[in-house]
Write a structure and sequence with these properties.
Number of domains: 3
Oligomer: single chain
CATH superfamily of the largest domain: tm_1862 like domain
Number of strands: 19
CATH topology of the largest domain: pyruvate-formate lyase- activating enzyme
Helix content: 25-40%
Largest sheet: 6 strands, parallel
Distance between the termini: 55 Å
Number of helices: 13
Bound molecules: S-adenosyl-L-homocysteine, iron/sulfur cluster, FE3-S4 cluster
Length: about 450
């Protein structure tokens, strides 16, 4: 039998990247080898994102390009097989086949683990849409992790929050927690493979544990009577042997518990880093977004974490030009970013998403030019906040986990890069590849997006 090759193009967030590692793992068991050259592949997978219109457009344009390759594959006329997975697949379902009849499989986000069965069927010539909102149970760990220092491990998926701008609850379904034993097995495997950092991943990590029993909103206890939640999980993973770091993303502001904050302080492997998207600094806009907090509540959470966790980094996400946002309301966002001294923020202009509540407020849409201009100001503010935050660490000695050896740069110097516990990127002159090692570094210079340092 000829060797079969698969190529996956992944758009979107870390959850999608993690899904791609799972798909590669499952496909390896089906006889497929990973290739980096799409033209050589017998199967092409576009792993899509629909968070904004632009990401959705990118997916369709890629599908269009691949469609033209159909019939030109090795030997057979119906090759390469084309698969659409991820959030656009979940959302558009069979409409994808209408729009692009050369697609062989539309794989919904909750059907990921059904892939091995479905692959056999599309190889036999079937066309399939599998987007049922009933999670297909994972059975064993089949995962082909991208070589790196950090392993992303999903602990929960889905979202019950229905923020009025956001498509995720429609594309990833309701919140579901993975069984602890599956998570532990994955952590163990990653550590055995040499990964030095574990990032626990979920749309809402603080919901971890909910629904593991029969009650979808309830928590269950372990055999010692302890509640199985995020802190419990962090404690268990912290107890694994060896030197490594633990992170977790993303946190919903009002769901962060004191128990989690205390866990971060107490456990040596859990890093001083919180990603807590605020979205807007204006109370009226926050209400319209269906976020369950106002500015002063967010500020209290932020101040509380900063007062308890030394050198903590707090990052956020913001949207510019939400429907109806006035100039004054937008300025409240700018003020919030500075006042809270946020260390870094992801920013985006509002993009209307089908099915979401805010997309229906067409009469309140902000013109494109104003959205673009607000986004530019937001980015300007973000840059200033990042630089200020980085300056706090000038002269300090910090532990850095090296992620990269960049070789000789334009100035003729070899550089290694890595991250501090609080997620700051550090560039260090060094002519040895120390990837995967923990080193102590003195910070010598602060730039907007990174720090410079020297080995001590
Ligand atoms: N679960 C996380 C975020 C998931 S989506 C949370 O609760 O915050 C990642 C980010 O994309 C969001 O934080 C938001 O800032 C941005 N985003 C989501 N929908 C968007 C839209 N319609 N337009 C622009 N940005 C959006
Ligand atoms: Fe989207 Fe809100 Fe859920 Fe985050 S919490 S994924 S922004 S609906
Ligand atoms: Fe995009 Fe889906 Fe992630 S919409 S951001 S790939 S959860």
């Amino acid at each position: 039998m000829n060797e079969k090759h698969v190529y996956i193009e992944t758009l979107g967030c870390q959850m999608n990247k993690s899904d791609a590692e799972r798909m590669y793992g499952m496909l390896e068991h089906c006889g497929y080898t990973q290739t980096t050259e799409p033209k050589k592949a017998d199967m092409l997978i576009i792993n899509t994102c629909s968070i904004r219109q632009l990401s959705e457009d990118k997916a369709y344009s890629q599908i269009g390009v691949w469609g033209k390759w159909k019939g030109k594959g090795k030997d057979k006329k119906d090759y390469p097989k084309i698969v659409v997975s991820g959030c656009v697949a979940q959302q558009a379902g069979k409409n994808i086949l209408k729009r692009a009849p050369y697609v062989d499989l539309v794989l919904g986000t909750q059907r990921l683990y059904e892939l091995p069965n479905l692959v056999k069927r599309i190889e036999a010539g079937e066309k399939i849409v599998s987007t049922e909102e009933k999670p297909f149970e994972e059975s064993e760990i089949q995962i082909n992790r991208v070589k790196s220092v950090n392993a992303w491990i999903p602990i929960m998926e889905g979202c019950n929050n229905f923020c009025t701008y956001c498509i995720v609850p429609y594309t990833r379904g309701r919140e579901r927690s993975r069984r602890p034993e599956l998570i532990f097995a994955e952590v163990k495997k990653a550590l055995n493979e040499g990964f030095k950092e574990i990032t626990l991943l979920g749309q809402n990590v603080d919901s971890y544990g909910k629904g593991l029993g029969d009650d979808p909103k309830g928590f269950i206890q372990d055999e010692e009577g302890k509640t199985i939640n995020l802190s419990w999980l962090l404690r268990k993973i912290n107890a694994f042997e060896g030197k490594f770091r633990i992170r977790f993303v993303t946190s919903y502001p009002t769901d962060i518990t004191d128990e989690v904050i205390d866990t971060v302080i107490e456990l040596d492997k859990v890093c001083e880093y919180f990603h807590i998207p605020m979205q807007s600094g204006d109370d009226y806009v926050l209400k319209k977004m269906n976020r369950r907090y106002d500015y002063s509540t967010y500020k209290k959470i932020c101040d509380h974490i900063r007062s308890k966790v030394k050198d903590v980094t707090i990052t956020s996400d913001f949207i510019a030009g939400f429907p109806g946002e006035t100039e004054e309301q937008f300025e409240n966002t700018l003020r919030a970013m500075s006042e809270l001294e946020l260390d870094y923020s992801n920013t985006a202009a509002y993009s209307p998403r089908e099915k979401t509540v805010a997309a229906k407020w067409t009469d309140l849409y902000i013109p494109e030019d104003i959205k673009t201009e607000r986004l530019a100001r937001l980015n300007e503010h973000n840059r200033a906040c990042c630089l200020n935050s980085n300056k706090k660490y000038l002269g300090r000695e910090m532990e850095v986990l090296i992620e990269n050896y960049e070789g000789v740069n334009k100035k003729g110097i070899s550089v290694i890069t890595g991250r501090t516990r609080n997620n700051k990127i550090v560039h260090i002159p060094c002519d040895k590849d120390l990837t995967g090692e923990f080193v102590n570094v003195k910070i010598t210079n602060a730039r907007t997006w990174y720090l410079n340092g020297e080995l001590v």
